[in-house]
Amino acid sequence: MKLKKLLSVFIAAGLVFTAAGCGSKSSSNEPADFVAGVSLDKPLKVDKEAGTVTVLTKVNGKYFNEPTRHNSVEQSGTNGAKSVFTAYVKPEDFYNALIEIGAKPGENMTMNNATTTHVEGTPIKVEVTWKGAGRNYDINEVVKDSNGKQINFRFGGNLAMAKEKNTGCLSCLDSCPVGIISNDAYTYGAVETRKEVKFTGIDNVLPEDGTYIATIYSIKK
């Protein structure tokens, strides 16, 4: 009787080990580019009920150490390699997705007034997450403003200019007449021309260079 019980325990333990092994295998086989419901095959997800726009993005470790005014740029744009986060969704699709969740563009920026004008439009909350992150991180937890100011994105709009310039810019870290959303804390030229501020990715929070992440946009309450 004791031998029978002992055999039962070993069999049960073996089944648990097998199940755990299968679970690990399945998890490890999930594509690296699949994060929070987006992937290279489907890089954009609009959830009207939740009020979110999710974009597949990749970490660009170059900007852990070098400053940039570009937060997220679509990979094929002329600024595609100049941002903290490389995106896989074009500005037009991103613009339309924000419209779908009820955001309204400010449309107050032009090339002529850019250096003296703060972007307007619906305030946009930006978060990022990745495999193993455990939660969503606010943009201010992963991108550093050297002056300690909060990044405050607004839906500037600028679709016509985005198409004309073909920079690929989704989000800029100073007010911008080209980027779809941009940071109203600074006017255009604050980073590159006037050197008022430096923006860098926070390397001890973000995952390593080349890691796929999901960037989640919503209307800031």
From TrEMBL:
Keyword Signal, does the record have it?
Answer: yes
Domain of life per record = Bacteria
Q: What stretches pass through the bilayer?
A: none
* Coiled coil stretches, renumbered: none
Q: Which residues form the signal peptide?
A: 1-22
Q: Which UniProt keywords apply?
A: Signal
Q: Does the keyword DNA-binding apply?
A: no
Residue ranges of domain 4Fe-4S ferredoxin-type in the record: 157-186
Q: What is this protein called?
A: 4Fe-4S ferredoxin-type domain-containing protein
Give the organism the record lists.
Gemella morbillorum
Its organism's taxonomic lineage begins at:
Bacteria, Bacillati, Bacillota, Bacilli, Bacillales
